[in-house]
Structure of Phosphotransferase:
Amino acid sequence: MGKVTVCVAVVCGVAVTAAAAVVIHRKMKKSGKWVKAMEIVKEFEESCRTPISKLKQVADAMTVEMHAGLASEGGSKLKMLITYVDSLPTGDEKGLFYALDLGGTNFRVLRVLLGGKDGGILKQQFKEVSIPPNKMTGSSAALFDYIAAELAKFVAQEEDDFKSTSGRPRELGFTFSFPVMQTSIASGTLLRWTKGFSIDETVGQDVVAELTKALERQGLEMRVSALVNDTVGTLAGGKYANNDVVVAVILGTGSNAAYVERAQAIPKWHGLLPKSGEMVINMEWGNFRSSHLPLTEYDQALDAESLNPGEQIYEKVISGMYLGEIFRRVLCRMAKEAFFGDIVPPKLKEPFILGTPVMSAMHHDTSPDLKVVANNLKDILEISNTSLKMRTVIVQLCDIVATRGARLSAAGLLGILKKMGRDTIKEGEKQKTVIAMDGGLYEHYEEYRNSLENCLKELLGEEVFKTIKIEHSNDGSGIGAALLAASHSQYLEDES
């Protein structure tokens, strides 16, 4: 009878066979990876914490910066730009008006037929156009020629019931949602590009003049009657529908806020006070920063590698362009240190491959086996055979990123309400404050939207929150631009 050799190893004081020892070693190694993965998640979650006490500090800092920005040019990270919109649409506006809404990787062209006090918006049509990436970083003429050509095509499709019989040039409201120093209602110089655009020669130029030259090159007779930021357009569109609208916020690719300020509360305003006693202020709140913002190593790396390092810090933690990228960066570290070892899936290394809509879809996955998460990982990142445990962690990461962004947005809103004196209830006053909200992030990312609204309620308290209403102003920025073109039409005097 031959000898049988049995190799015995001692693991944790228990004698086991060599084969069993290998299995145990693998499990321990795997378990160690999960410990590391959960350490990364826990550390990230801790860095992103937004307790109410911290959010109130952020809100106070926002209010302080608002005061500083209104006091002097360059006095604050917040530009607090004077828009020259001292009165918003009344509902009496009449006629055919166009709008061009340029605010991100797409732009919209719209036409709106207004019927005056009893008619409201009679008809509207729009078309959305993607901007090729090379036009976002090429020359100024190439970008504006591309836009003007698409606008000319849209005008050429004008139906008979839209056509103006007045024989006047068409009038256009131009929504340009980048930081601009306005010099009048229909002129303004670009301060800097954001949201992935980078055309140095346009900075310091009057964007209305650039567009007008492009329209002339197309042979299109059209006058820009109003230059507005998308947030100001949203405010005008919201006010047209609801007279209690006094604040507008965009939460989309980028983020910004505008509100109605008392003209006397703007020390840097040196002209005659407007008859209305009010002035719409474009805050450019994306550039807000404060030591109270909970920034992580991932945010700092994203900022350092961005087209505008050190700028738009608040926007980089709350807006749609960046949430998916923050999430990708955390996932990348987890892949390297916990999931896959040194071989990180190549697709996962690509910046911005995980857009916020993908993150949103995974965050909202309610299937028992998180199939939406699995499919997105497979289709976009080419990562298959993921465990349910890993997919659950991915949903948790989505929640951490989105919740921080939403709660910081709510803190910004509190800062504005404090500046306006609408964060408390005044004795004997029936106060109602409506905030017009637009942008794909707010509209489509339900978890983000709910988190923002719940947090604002928590910050204000039940009683004050009852006086505040957030209304979704769908495509407010485009419609608002057309309405402002109408309310600032050069032909109004001819008709009076």
Residues 1-28 have pLDDT under 50 and may be disordered. The first strand starts at residue 8 and ends at 11.
